[in-house]
Each structure stands twice: as C-alpha cells, then as structure tokens.
Amino acid sequence: MTISPEHLPLLALLIAGVFVGAVAVRDLLARRWIAAARTGGVALLALAMGFVGGTRVGKHEMPRIRRLPGLVPLNVTAGTSTLLLLGGVSIYVVPQNRCLVALDGTPFLTLDSLRTGLLVTCS
Predict the structure, then answer these.
(1) Partners of 84 in the beta sheet?
(2) Prediction pTM value
C-alpha cells in the first residue's frame, strides 16, 4: 500500500497526537493534573487537526471558467478555422503563421508560428 506525499504531514500529526496522548495518560496516572491537562489538550488538538486536514486533502474545487464575450482573434479572415485552447478558453482561429488575440479590441496576446516552435508574446 502506498501513501500519497500530501498525506504525510497529516500522518505525522496523527502519530504525534497518539504519542502526546500517551504522555497525557502517564501524567494522569502520576497525578500531575496541570501537565496532564496541557498535554491532553495538545494531543486532542493534533488529532483534530489530523482528522480535519484529512477530510480536506485532495478535494480541490475546479476553477470557474468565465465567459469572455469580447475575446476574439483580431486578424480573422474567411476560411476554415482551427481550435486554439488557451487555458480554459476555446478560440476558433484561421490557420496562419501569426495570430493576435484581443479583448474588447485591445490586443494582448501574439502567437507566432516559427520553425523551432511557437513564440508567445504578451503585451
């Protein structure tokens, strides 16, 4: 059985809570009430943090994708289009060597096709 590395701090909290709880029981048996209360509180806190953290780990909300109605390629001409994915935004563009992307008429992204790869410039 393997454990994900993101769970290791939680496992450490749970193990620490058990060990500190054992120290609290030892203090109770030795009739050291204030030390037992202090270590018992630390043990309960560590165990609670371990359990609450375990319910939160791995549950990430998907980011909300906003619709940007003004986001269009600036230099679109008639012809066949291809799909360009920028993060969560889909843009249909004409296959060409250079594409300017604008929001409300203001260009902010330039995509240049080169032999060596894609050159992305933000303005």
Answers:
(1) 91
(2) 0.45
